[in-house]
Amino acid sequence: MVTVDIFYAVCYGMLGLLGISWYIHVNKENAEARYYYLGRRDGWNMHRRMIENKVKTDEVFDYDKQN
For the chain, which ranges sit under pLDDT 70? Predict the structure, then answer.
């Protein structure tokens, strides 16, 4: 009787560890995907700002335009 109870305790413990490891794995994948796309967004925003800044400075230093 005691061995059966120990067996069930071990099985439930392993099931609990499996559930916890699955939860960590899923959240890790979601975090990696989230920060990957946040990094891409930041990169595109930086690129957009650089291009806008280049266009503004080209307009300022465009000596061919005689205003």
Answer: 1, 59-67
Q: Where are the alpha helices (DSSP H) in 1-67?
A: 2-60
Helix, strand or coil, per DSSP, at residue 62:
coil
Distances (CA, A) of 48 to 34, 42, 45, 65: 21, 10, 5, 25
Torsion angle of C-alpha atoms 37, 41, 42, 48, degrees rounded to 10: 160
Instruction: Note if the pTM is more than 0.90.
Output: no
CA distance 40 to 34: 10
Rounded Cα gap, residues 6 and 42, in angstroms:
53
